[in-house]
Amino acid sequence: MKLIKAIRGMNDLLPEDAAIWQFLEQSIRQLVASYGYKEIRTPSLEKTALFQRGIGEATDIVEKEMYTFKDRGNESLTLRPEGTAGVVRAGIEHGLLYNQQQRLWYLVDLYRYERPQKGRYRQFHQFGVEVFGLQGPDVDAEIILLTARLWRLLGLEQQLTLHLNSLGSNQARLAYRQILVDYFQEHFDELDEDSQRRLKTNPLRILDSKNPDMQSLIESAPKLFQHLDEESRQHFETLCRKLEDAGISYEINHRLVRGLDYYNRTVFEWMTDTLGAQGTVCGGGRYDGLVAELGGQNTPGIGFGMGIERVVLMLKNNHIEQQLGDAIDVYLINIGESASNQALSVAEALRNELPQLKLLTHCGGGNFKKQIKRADKSGARWALILAEEELAEGNISIKTLRAISTIETDEVNHQKAQQVDEQQITIPLVDLAGWLKQKI
Ligand code: ATP
Ligand code: MG
Q1: pTM to 2 decimals?
Q2: How far is ligand 1, taken at its centre, from the CA of residue 116, in Å?
Q3: Which ligand is in closest contact with the Cα of 122?
Q4: How far is the CA of 257 from the centre of ligand 2 (A)?
Q5: Helix count and strand count (H, E) for the chain
Q6: For 181-193, b where at least 16 C-beta lie within 10 A, e where not — what string?
Q7: What phi and psi, each to the nearest 5 degrees, are found at residue 171?
Q8: CA–centroid distance, residue 279 to ligand 1 (Å)
């Protein structure tokens, strides 16, 4: 029979990687709690119009990346390709935004019909933050500091660079747009096909082009930075000063325009050169017009989206899994009928006494040799051997399978592990929990 396989670009998270995801998710939860941010969860499906209006018709996402379909009621729905529009919709709908301050975060699955490659998938995940009702630039600095703290928590700070730019006010951006169109129009023949099309729909995105043939043309293009309105210029300078005061280094990147229409003033990206072409790990910026655009009262907003898969790739490059203690502590073996009858209740009693103990109980029977093999394979540090004769005297045996943990794989420790492999002791069952308590 023909196998049914997963959809291209949509990944299974397998047990061997789960510890890394959990470590990242726990770090994120700890981080947002320490900044007083509150979680928001919105549906994966929204009406298509939300993204058309929120993200902008002339963006890559809306033009060619959305999973859009009609439901049985003939309504056009879209799997969310980004997190901000849904949060803004929910904020307006539940009256969370008008005249209020909100600091929100989420961890969500997103869907984009892109060409799958390393660091780019059709279903992926983002950690995002959205802050409403604050003009900045203090809060702009706050969310950047929050991301920088996450890099430190994860040990990635050496591998990421902060890129900053300002897109100015909408008026300044419109005026600049015309200047840019005039410039590229003069060099129309040097533009590639994509950029010729973008010249009409979204000329700022030409600055973002990766085409090597166009780089010198882009380098010489007029800079938005030189056409900023006075308020935006001050906003940006204050932000830069705050980052310097906090010891965060950054690069001003005049070509940073971001792929979504709704940004104004501050935009930023964290980039790495450890992931090849997919080097942007986190991107965000200010979107003061978006709430009004989606039908709410005028409310300033700022946020970012961080690609979880790309952060996981970086953590894997750093072999983080070796530092994550998700190994099993003990494996409970049972030999003989009375032991087999009691095994589950012995295990439950241990879990009552030691909630942090990671305990696997042997299921499925089998002789000692088979069970001890399983115990070893489980990675447990000790095998607990509940055997009929010993149990009759109220005793249990403990066999040490590993010296400390699997981190220490060098020669010396391997020998040490071999030595302790021989160790086996027998103790009264009533002392078992106390014995383990001292060890773990
Ligand atoms: P890119 O230029 O890489 O396409 P983008 O500008 O489309 O990124 P955003 O929409 O700003 O990205 O999303 C923020 C982050 O989400 C990105 O920096 C990246 O880490 C991650 N991301 C975006 N698209 C994907 C994808 N298809 N697969 C995995 N991660 C993604
Ligand atoms: Mg993209």
Answers
A1: 0.89
A2: 12
A3: 1
A4: 13
A5: 16, 16
A6: eeebeeeeeebee
A7: -65, -45
A8: 9
The angle at the Cα of 223, spanning 219 to 224, to the nearest 5 degrees, equals: 145
CB 264 within 8 A of CB 172: no
Q: How far apart are CA 45 and CA 43, in angstroms?
A: 5
pLDDT value at residue 202: 83
pLDDT at 259: 66
- With a Cβ cut-off of 6 Å, ligand 1 is lined by 82, 112, 114, 119-121, 124, 126, 259, 278, 280-283, 305, 307, 309-310
For residue 371, the CA-to-ligand 1 centroid distance in Å is 47
Instruction: Indicate which residue's Cα is closest to atom 14 of ligand 1.
Output: 305
Distance CA 302, CA 53 (A): 18
Q: What is the pLDDT of residue 323?
A: 85
Q: One-letter amino acid identity for 312? A: V
Six token digits for residue 323: 């530092």
Nearest CA to ligand 1 atom 21: 307
pLDDT of residue 260: 67
The predicted structure's pLDDT at residue 59 = 83
Nearest alpha-carbon partner for 286 in 173, 195, 127: 173
pLDDT < 70 positions in the chain:
259-260, 404-422
Q: Which amino acid is at 438?
A: Q
Q: How far apart are CA 268 and CA 282, in angstroms?
A: 8
Cα 108 to middle of ligand 1, angstroms: 13
pLDDT digits (tens, 9 = 90+) for 279-313: 999 999 999 989 999 999 999 999 999 999 999 99
